[in-house]
Amino acid sequence: MKFEAAGSVRELIDHRAADTPDKAYLVAPESGRELTYAAVREHARATASRLHALGLGKGDTASFLLGNGPATAELILGTMYAGCICAPLNTAAGAAQLAYVIGHSQTSVVFVSPEFEPQLAEAVASSGCDVRVIVTDVDAGPDWPVESDSAAALPDVASGDDAMLIYTSGTTGNPKGVLLTHTNVLAGASNVVGAHELTAADRGLCVLPLCHINAQIVSLFGVLASGGTIVLPHRFSTSQFWGWIADYECTWFSVVPTIIAYLLHERDELDARTREALARIRFGRSASAPLPPALHEQFESRFGIPIVETMGITEAAAQILTNPLPPAARKIGSPGLPYGNEVIIATPEGAELDSGEQGEILVRGANVMRGYLRDPAATAAAVDADGWLHTGDLGAKDDDGYVFVTGRLKELIIKGGENISPREIDDALFSHPAVVEAGALGVPDDDFGEDVVACVVVRDDAECEEQELIEHCAARTGTFKAPRRILFLRDLPKGPTGKVQRHELAKLIARDFAERVKKKS
After folding, report:
1. Pick from 32, 96, 165, 472: most CB atoms within 10 A?
2. Residue 475 belongs to what domain range?
């Protein structure tokens, strides 16, 4: 049976365990644990029976506030194996947002790493919900209050059953709960495997958090679907990244632009052994935020690794666009072509636009969510009657069908009636050799309605003045689009995968402006 024929995550796990029982599915560098496919099924069955012993039935929700580790992967897979809904919680979320999610999801149990216990306790208390909390070591596993009953029968799991509940970032108002079925999850994994030509011989390095759709679908399920191996350290480390690649003979990795920037600006030279290991890497994958062209080109030049830029969205089980692998054409500045789903550029009314015309990016396919949990109005607004998911991203296709993302509908800067994409400013700033991170946004302005400002992080050993960067941008975007002001920070606020949170930048800009006014008065 090919994995595409699997109707559920349970069927896929059973198939892999029967087909290649002794092959390593997961390797954990810190603990040295190695999980074979047979062990994955054994742990999934045990997790399922314990969840049912705790009183969870088919369709009930189990949540996870965990760092990365083999036990985290086992719990995610085991929850779906049980017919329950897996609901990873954002480890970077505050207690207020966690309280909302706990209440809205009606979760029955939360597995939590010791480091996150204080914020979870505050969240549970303020939610007013009766939730069972199980402390979990990400390497050794949960401190189960019940034993596994291997004789207990498990309920049937169908392809259309809900498998995963993931809450969006909630930049405005409360986050929305995205419901993905087993079909959605497997379709997302299938798209990744097909587009990146993953096989059982591949070993992928995952340094992104398992609380996010990227790591879940691309790394966890992409590897499960391909029959390969995933190398899963606790977290990203600049100093250890290439060592993991070498030690575990990885052939691909999935990262975000922020990680690419930090790897590029690491000044230590790679030794001969590591350089040899780089030759085994088929590709590196970038997602979750646009990859600035300057960063893309500099990374490939230094390390000789082809970077495949992609685009994903939680509501479509991660990947919707990807550049092809070499020797096919990869277009710098574009997340590529649709693979496994349809993507069009459309007017606000949903009519498809011609190449070169800017509009909203729409996607349709088996990977598109069932809907938002208990929010039919938001679901209807996001997915139209023809099955097109409206992403909220703006873009245009070129004559070859490659999509170029120009920004978010809600993030466009409208200065004097002209639309300015924050990404255009980000890319200009990234082309300066001193800049490691950048984020532009619009702020209120009496003359133009909005004006452009930006926040940057520069290398520790770099000397760079505000006016220098403003002039650098102006030379590339024109004076009208160049930032009026640039704020230097030690770090930019980011989500769990490294995507810059512009709404948080707005707060920092407002605070900086208030302090400047106070000093002048």
Report:
1. 165
2. 413-520
- List the CATH number of the domain containing 145: 3.40.50.12780
340 assigned to some structural domain: no
Check residue 170 and give left, alpha or beta (phi > 0: left; psi -120 to 50: alpha).
left
67-111 pLDDT tens trace: 999 999 999 999 999 999 999 999 888 888 899 999 999 999 999
Amino acid at the residue 430: F
As to burial, measured by CB atoms within 10 angstroms (0-12 exposed, 13-18 middle, 19+ buried), residue 520 is exposed
Asked if residue 177 is part of any domain, the answer here is: yes
Shortest CA distance to 439 belongs to which of 450, 418, 423, 451?
423
Assigned domain for 453 exists: yes
Residue 367 counted as domain residue: no
Q: Which residue has the higher pLDDT, 338 or 473?
A: 338
Closest CA to 226 of 248, 255, 252: 252
Q: What percentage of the chain's residues is helix, strand, coil (to nearest 5)?
A: 35, 25, 40
* Tally of CA atoms within 13 A in the half-sphere of 202 that contains its CB: 23
Task: Provide the CA 467 distance to its chain's centre, in angstroms.
Answer: 34
61, β-bridge pairs: 85
CATH of the domain at 429: 3.30.300.30
- C-alpha distance across the termini of the chain, in Å: 74
